[in-house]
Amino acid sequence: MISLESISDKVKNGLRITEGEALFLFESKDLLGVGELASLVNERKNGNRVFFNVNRHINYTNICVKRCAFCAFSRKADEEGAYTLDLTEIKRRAVEAVQQGATELHIVGGLHPDLPFDFYLEMLRVAQSVSASLHIKAFTAVEIDYLASLAGLSAGGVLRSLRDAGLGSLPGGGAEIFSGRIREQLCPDKISGQRWLDIMEEAHGIGLRSNATMLYGHLESFDDRVDHLRRLRDLQDRTHGFQAFVPLAFQPENTRMQLDRQAGTTGVDDLKTMAVARLYLDNFEHVKAYWVMLGEKTAQVALAFGVNDLDGTVIEEKIGHDAGAVSPQFLCREDILRLIRKAGRMPVERDTLYRPLRVY
Amino acid sequence: METIREKIEAGEAISRPEALYLLADADLLAVARLADGIRCRLHPESYVTFVVDRNVNYTNICESRCKFCAFYRDVAASDAFVLTEEEIFSKIAELSDQGGTQLLMQGGLHPALDIEFFEHLFRGIKRRFPHIRNHSLSPAEVTHIAGLSGLTVRETLSRLKAAGLDSIPGGGAEILVDAVRKEISPNKIGWKEWAGVMREAARLSLPTTATMMFGCREKPEDIVEHLFRIRELQADGGSFTAFIPWTYQPGNTELGGETATGAEYLKVLALSRIVLDNIANIQASWVTQGAKMAQIALFFGANDLGGTMLEENVVAAAGCSFRIDREEILHLIRNAGFRPVQRSTLYDIVKFY
Residues 6 or more apart from A271 whose CB is under 8 A from it? Predict the structure, then answer.
């Protein structure tokens, strides 16, 4: 018989919880109880420290050959509002980012029908040329898969070429929910959950670290969430290449999904999801609250529910905002420091690979 | 923490230093646990209530000119207004058509609107809408009307009650510490006058509520003092049905600065539930916190989501304009594991969902 008590005993003894126990936690009405356990685990791993980084997002194009139902960002090439940044503009933004103290570029975009593979390599070289110490975190597994077919290479081949051109690590996007049944409705044209995992395994195998995301709050059940977490934990056991788990709260506005009007996540669901992730993913070092999707208030409160990373200052985020996210376009360093301090924690600026740069 | 927990579990009141410790030093979830325990004791049926209401602001002309306020205007301002009785009646008719039960009417301290204006208005409202509760006029307005009309507070409240006023909202409390009030609202009544109006209201059997606006210039000690002053007023024959803490919104105000963070809001909310265990209900403020935080607040001591607020102008003027409707309130409550119940102004059950 599973109970919060029995789970608590396991967690306190450093034992792994099962999928059934993760499901029990998702279904529990004891939000504070789940939060207390997650907080205990987080404190063991991270003490009082909360990480953030200073980064800039560059979405190089919104033109995409796919039409995921949940996405409000993508455009067809001839559609109003379609854009592609050229290398000069990308360089300009990279220079500006470095001047503003960014240590990371987060570069992702649509699956563009015409850009040659060389464009991607050149984009990395141009960005890296701005500063040798700038870390370039770029391309989700979905983009890697697309580039492989574009270049006629294997995913491993693409990853090696990109790495040699300056790619430092991969973000965790495109994972959505691994369940095939949900993917069929959510993003039928997108790579399968298994393919996403395989590409991450390849990346980890050649020394590239990555993050992992989960898009939740749309059509999926708690079972689907647990299945998603299980597959991540299994892969992490093999590679130890994931750095942070980043749950993404679905933003329903401006998307093509026909959902009932209460779609989207609630605050309780957000906190519980982060807490369960912290408890189940015992082999992940970091759980990140992505304030762009959650809003600053919920993201800050999540620091008491197992979260140890508030992401970056994120200059110019477009994807979440196109879907109706009401958070600001960016937070400056002072804003992030205030959120962390007012939660009674110690802010630590990190680089992309979670090396502390400065303790505040 | 242990001694505080024991006191609370024994149903004893905590002291000011203990409250300050909870606010300034204790772990957020530990404080939430204590607050949640008190909520469960006072509301064991696991209902979360809300009222269908409308905030009507009869004027934005105000002599008080509080530095934290973005709503007030001078008489000569191009966007200054006083609503006509017809405009007010048509707003109440809309509220009534949507199944609303509560009118919350507040406005600025207008230089010319005296007791006769309100008596006429309230009689007109009661005659046309006998089923709507008139929950109106904060203590600052009552005091202002009394002064303009050459009446005592008691006389003013008696006459307003006779004209149809049903209960008094607790707005304008801000922080009930005069050093803070001098800084943020130097022209507004002091804490003793605020308390005095609420005492008189209770003596006249008018139900009241109490609020607190924090995250502005106050220190943690001031928040604690505010809560204890409310607690003591209630213990001394007060008629508070609910306490509503909410956060200063800096947009378009003279004071400017930042609003309190989410964790600070929840901490103060939980502390309110703990200190004010002699007031039945604690409201979450979706108006200032948004839907996500208001739902989370149900685990930090709140048992009520306030009103659906068909109309809200004062917080919106400060650039904070969350909107929420009945369907969303029902969803938030159910999703948090509670049963939604529509209530009256006095917390009687209107409808189970």
Answer: A31, A35, A298, A301, A302, A305, B296
Query: What residues form DSSP beta bridges with A138?
Result: A107
A-B contacts (CB, under 8 Å): 83
- CA distance, residue B191 to nearest chain A CA (Å): 28
CATH topology of domain B2-352: TIM Barrel (3.20.20)
User: Which percentage of chain B shows pLDDT scores above 90?
Assistant: 93
Is residue B245 packed enough to be buried (19+ CB in 10 Å), middle (13-18) or exposed (0-12)? buried
Q: What is the ipTM of this complex?
A: 0.92
Question: Which chain A residues are Cβ-neighbours of B328 within 8 angstroms?
Answer: 262
**Paired strand residues for B18:** none
Residues B267 and B35: their CA atoms lie apart, in Å, by 10
What's the rounded Cα separation, in Å, for the pair B277 and B297? 17
Residue B119's CB is within 10 A of a number of other CB atoms, namely 18
E strands, chain B, in order: 47-51, 53-57, 102-106, 133-134, 208-214, 240-247, 281-282, 304-307, 339-343, 349-352
Q: Are B72 and B60 in contact (CB under 8 A)?
A: yes
What's the token pair of residue B45?
């049926």
Residue A70: pLDDT band (50, 70, 90) is: confident
Specify the pLDDT at position A82. 95
Domain ranges of chain B: 2-352
Domain A4-9+16-359: CATH architecture, name and number where available: Alpha-Beta Barrel (3.20)
Could A267 and B258 be called an inter-chain contact, meaning their C-beta atoms sit closer than 8 Å?
no
Using CA coordinates, name the residue in chain A closest to B24: A344
Average pLDDT over residues A337-357: 96
Q: Are B346 and B207 in contact (CB under 8 A)?
A: yes
Contacts of B130 (CB under 8 A, 6+ apart): none
